[in-house]
Every structure is written in structure tokens, then in C-alpha cells.
Amino acid sequence: MRVAIIGGGLTGLTVAYRRASLGDRVTLYEASTRLGGQLSTERSDGFVVEHGAEGFVARSEAVARLATDLGIADRLVEQLVHRSYRFDGSSLLELAPGEAARLLGFQVPSDELGRGIRSFIGGMADLSDALVDALEDRVDLRLSSAAQRVESSAGKLAVLFAAGDGEHYDAVVVATGAVIAGELLSNAFGARAAALCETTCTSSTTVTLAYARAAIAHPLDGTGFISIPQPLLGARAATFVSAKLPARAPADRALFRVFFRPTEDELATETDATWVTRAHEALKSSLGVTAEPLRSWVSRWPHALPVIDAVHRARVSELETALTGSRIRLAGSAFHGSGIDAAVRSAEQAAAALS
């Protein structure tokens, strides 16, 4: 069977891996110049810096199974501490287990709150790197290939591009963001697909800062802190990266990640230097930092996080009903729940549904 996968993030890579393992002829289209989507890890001078997701829910069976099948289960690491704090404007107050995630509105099952995360010793890109390595000789990986629409006619599927060219497949998996999926499918499936173009998405900017450990007055005995309901200089939360997960920084260094939810104006105007200053000032106020950061990294994810509410779930359900019998599948956390675990489970379900 010829299978096209649109989207080279974790979900698309996982579908490609599963279908290629079954002997399908798989072509994966990715609009950008890199694979992995929101799994993006930078490793430099003993630091492991996540530009995207920092881990997955600890109880995930789907991610652990995928890691085992890829031969990287020995690279899984556990969260080291579970205490979390809230900054009240003057000091850090310890929170009950799971309270930080609840207050931040994390879209994860309630029974996962407070249970922490798992990751990989080299960062979450260990997972996407392993998938790419497993696919390179078995899947046609096409970067910088932005599909424009998917057509379905008389049981035949076509993936079409801006130049008007296209290719035919027996099955297509759309593993993109919700808005892009709506654009891809609206010509063939009308209003039920076009409705996804109205998906509400939020943006994220994160700043990772490295300091000499001696410059941090507060004991790094937790996962981090939140600043809710009043953001601290715009920062909603900060993670004590080097305390939360193993092998994230040299022993005499401390690594932090500060999370912002930027406005449209901030997306357009704020420089990296401004974000770094804001993050540093937030850590000075909350942790008593006494020196300038040694290193800094800024990560921007504009309009990347869909709000999965009742309206969005209804839109997805209606489109999937319309897709019944078409051998087109939606896959990914944009449709079936947020987070790494949801992305992998959605990918596994989509891959199985094509059999």
C-alpha cells in the first residue's frame, strides 16, 4: 500500500515507522527544513536544552513501548523531584501535588496530575532522532515540501502542491496542526474541514538560562514555580531544569526555563534580548539570583498550541465522521488531546486503522 503522511513531527514520524514496518511504501511530507516538530533539543557544553516539549507523562505506556521498539528504552530517565511552588510576589510557597499543573490549565487527564514526567537522557530529541534513523532507508522523507490540499475522488487520493503537481496514494494521514489540516481538506470535505481553520491557538515563548550554581540563593529542591494568577514580569512559570531531570547541566551550573504566553504585539516586536532580560529579572525576584546568566536560549512557538475545548472536539468529530471510508486519517495532539503521550497514541491508532 502507498501511504502519504503530511507532517514530520512526532506523530507523523511514528505513523511512518509503524506503516513502514508493515511493508507499506511510505512518503512523508514536511513543510519545514527539519523533522521532529515540537521535539527540539540542543546539546551544548554539557547542557541539554529543550526548545520544545521537556518530557511526557510518567505513566505513558505508549511512549515507553515506542522507545522499546526503537531500542532506546535504556535512555529513559525519571523526574528527580516532585515538589513545586507558587510565587506570591515575595516568596515561594509549596503547592500540593498536581496543583501547579491544574492552575496552569494543563490539558492532561486529572489522574496524571502530580505524577511527574519522564524524558530521555539526551533530551526529548532522542526519540525523534531514533525515529528518523529508523526511517532513513525505508521511507521517502521529503523536507521543504508543503502540501496544499488533499483530494479524494472515486476512491483515489491525491496530495497536491502549489505548483499544481501531485501524487496519488492509497491512504493519507494528516499529522499537522488543526488549522493546516482544515486548509488541506476543505476543498474535498467542505465546511466540516474548513471549521478547523477557526481553531483557537495560543503561542509560547520560553527562555532557558544557565547560571553558576553559587549564584542561586534558593535551594533547588523542586521542579520549579508558577506565578498565577499574576504573571511575574509576564512569566507564568519557571522550571528548575537541572534539578528536575538528570544530566541537564554540569554539576557546578544551574539551568532554568522560564515560560511566557506572548501577545500578538509581543510576538511581532520583542527581541530575544528583551525576553532574556525579562526571564532573568523574574528569576532575580523569585530566587534571589546574584549574577548574570552565563548562557541563554530563546524558543518561540507562535500559534502552536491548540485549545482543545468542547467546540474543538466537536469540530474534529464532525470531520472524522465525514472522512469515514475515505482512507484519510487525522493524527496528532492537535486532534486527540495535548501532549507527547496523546500524540503517540493518536499515531498508533491512525497507523492501525489503515490495516
What distance lies between the first and last C-alpha atoms, to the nearest angstrom?
A: 10 Å
Share of residues in strands: 25-35%
Sheet with most strands: strand arrangement: 8-7-16-17-18-15-19
Helix count? 11
Instruction: Report the average pLDDT across residues.
Output: 94
Content-based structural category: alpha/beta
Got a strand count? Answer: 20
User: Biggest sheet, open or closed, and with what strands and sense?
Assistant: 7 strands, mixed
Helical coverage, percent range: 25-40%
* Approximate shape: globular
Low-confidence stretches: none
Question: Mind telling me the C-alpha Rg?
Answer: 21 Å
Report on this structure.
The protein is of the alpha/beta class. It is 32% helix and 28% strand. It is built from eleven helices and 20 strands. The chain has helices spanning 10-21, 61-70, 99-104, 125-135, 178-194, 241-244, 264-269, 272-287, 310-323, 333-336, 340-353, and strands spanning 2-6, 25-29, 41-44, 47-50, 56-57, 76-78, 85-87, 92-94, 117-120, 140-142, 147-153, 156-161, 166-169, 171-174, 201-212, 224-226, 235-239, 253-260, 295-306, 328-330. The strands form five sheets. Strands 8-7-16-17-18-15-19 form a seven-stranded mixed beta sheet. A five-stranded parallel beta sheet has the order 10-2-1-14-20, covered by helices on one side. A three-stranded antiparallel beta sheet has the order 5-9-6. Strand 12 (156-161) and strand 13 (166-169) form a beta hairpin. Helix 2 crosses helix 11. It is globular, with a radius of gyration of 21 Å. The chain starts with a strand and ends with a helix. The relative contact order is 0.19.
